[in-house]
Input
Amino acid sequence: MPHSPFRLTATEALGRIAAGDLTAREWTESCLDRIEALDREIRAFVHVDPAGARKAAAEVDAGRRKGPLAGAPFAAKDIIDTHDMPTAYGSEIYAGARPAADASPVAMARAAGAVLLGKTVTTEFANLTPGPTLNPLAIDRTPGGSSSGSAAAVAAGMVPLAYGTQTTQSTIRPASYCGVHGYCPTQGDFRLSGVREAAGSFDRLGLITRSIADIALLRDVLIRRRPRTFEACPEPPSIGFCRTQLWPTMDPTLQAELLRAAARLGEAGASVVEIELPAVFAILPDAHRTVSSFEFVRNFAFEIDRHWERISPQLRHGRIADGLATTYERYVAAGAAIAQARTQLPAVFEKIDLIMTASTLGEAPHGFKSTGSAAIGALFTPLGLPCITIPAFKGPTAMPMGLQALGPLGGDDALLAQAAWIEANL
Output
């Protein structure tokens, strides 16, 4: 058995299994040992199923379970249903609840041979109130949210693959804060049956891994496509470097790193031009909050009506208060404004392959009262663009900061290949 299989990316370990140098049981045991060693402190998981994981790994090794992910350990955010593990949505209201079936992304991963180790911490109903997870790179800092446990588990080597979700910035932000890769597809690419809806206009499944090749592999499984060998694009891409209106609020070190990255990528052969977003995009953060809050309170009408006191004050006085105060007319107007902004996307991408910007405003903040600013997500998420964060930079205290790349609608395959080129040249 290779030393410490938990350190391998999924594609690396799957290659070793194919070569006979690693078994699924060895890989699974290495990850379970890692969870046992670290998770009492990190608290990335709300539930771990060692017996179920060992049984699934044994089936892979015996040849009874096959597929492109055969033997790969993974974890799922605790708003994603699993038939054999509790799903509590980060709320005491649903402690111990057992769904009848797996959510679509869990079922598809298992059908492809993946081994589910457990459920990871989410903020309450994938929203504002932080869970108990610590950042494995600095335990006095937030891991981000709402997919806090998934990002921390991947960063700490507990699993190579984890599912998160994103309604504002719930995959990109924790992946950036924890120094791993996070990806959300073009809106609607992945099915969300069995994933608790927060705001259906924006909800997306997120993939968190330690390599872009792993994202590409898992994406192929989730769109039911035969996995292909993943490679960086052979030609340098055309990059639109976008500071956004949030530039003055970004950490100065991050500003400097982004400028340096733009220069380095240009020197490596990419066409790098600085772009400004259309003026109409200025309405997107407010429109996003209006739409997401309106939809959230309707999705959680039962909990608001029957379990008000068991909802955290932070959520009651934030997202829920906003949603209850939003009229249907405001909701419709905000949706129309977002639709109008999306009509500008072809012009944005007319001469560029991708947008390059920051993943967050800086390093993971100290403390646990919040999960950090989601301002960048509130700007881009309403557009539904595929996006990926690459752990490209270090902040003023050597904590990771991500570079975010966003592609045109439907341009996911090209975006991943271009992001791999960017990563290779940084």
Notes: The first helix runs from residue 10 to 18.
